[in-house]
Amino acid sequence: MKVNSNIQALVAQNVLRTNEEKNAASTEKLSSGFKINHAKDSPSGMAISNRMNAQIRSLYKAKDNASNAVNVVQTADGALTEVHNMIQRMNELAVKASTGTLTSADREAIQKEVDALRKEIDRVAKDTEYNTQNLLGGEQQMKGYTEDPSVKVMNYDVDFPKGWYKVDIAAETIEIYTDKDRTTKTSVSNLKDAHAEDGIFTATLNDGSKLVLSYDPASPAATDVDITGIGGMKIQVGTATGQEIQVVVPKMDPVSIGIDEIDMRTEKDAREAMETLKKALEYVSSARSGLGAYQNRLESTVASLSETVENLEGSYSTVKDIDMAEEMVEYTKLQVLVQAGTSMLSQANEQPQQALQLLQ
How many domains is the chain built from? Predict the structure, then answer.
């Protein structure tokens, strides 16, 4: 029988301390809802869950980006709807002005309405904005440059390969330079068609990508063209660099549409205007078709991101979240063990007092 060293009490104390620590950890898990609250709980699980959490939060923002881009496209398409209606009205006026029953005064009145519609189209192009960013004024189209000022890059598709091209409008040919010094050029291997008509040169590739240039019909030139691949509104739809969608909206002012010089004051001019307006309607319809394709793609992106986030949330929950029912069973067991340990420590501390009986 020993007084200075109570081994049974030390054993009971150690067991009690261990169970109290486990009970405290279980209480923390039940309170937070997480099975991993500290790196020591699961070092690998902590690293995996943190990485997943960062990806999930980024994907939520990417989904917001795609949803906002849908609103951008809808804003642009709404404005183009009105532009389309105004061009259609101008076309109706051209048909009306081309008949021989009208007087010069009648055609003058028609021209005034045409001028007013043209000014409104120009205003819509300048004033259509989303979050202070102009949508139809050319800021959201692909950028390109030419060495001949009489030739201008109107627009080109995102998939049209960037680089320097040699364009001969009169010969209706296009070649690409293979070196940065522009000393060697070769034919465009996937070129489907190249043609020039009424001041517009269009090069079309096998995949449907187009390059559109404007030129002076009186003097079609040969010039070098720089396709930069820069422009449009880049929408970040992923968590890594390069996971983006480029939304391109061509310029929609009267000059770009080709209606800046429409005159219906004579029967002959009115008939020519009908053909010009037909091409203008095709130009606007093509732009709206492109916007519709963007909207469908972006809506599919939103749906895909939602599905990805849902699956990642499930995986994150498996790694990070606690099973409350399972942990409650563990917590109840630990409470009983703590109570039992406390009781046994109390009894173990009473044993040295039995040594007093030997001194009586």
Answer: 1
Cα(202)–Cα(155) distance, rounded to whole angstroms?
Answer: 10
Q: How many residues does the chain have?
A: 360
Task: Evaluate whether residue 170 is within a structural domain.
Answer: yes
User: For residue 88, what pLDDT band results from cuts at 50, 70 and 90?
Assistant: very high
Q: What's this model's pTM, rounded to 2 decimal places?
A: 0.82
- Identify whether the C-beta of residue 45 lies closer than 8 Å to the C-beta of residue 319: yes
Q: How would residue 24 be classed by pLDDT, with cut points 50, 70 and 90?
A: confident
- 208 domain residue, yes or no: yes
Between CA 224 and CA 151 the distance in angstroms is 10
Residue 197 domain-assigned (yes or no): yes
Which single residue is written with the structure tokens 């109390």?
A: 346
Residue type, 36: I
Domain housing 158? 142-231
Closest CA to 136 of 177, 224, 75: 75
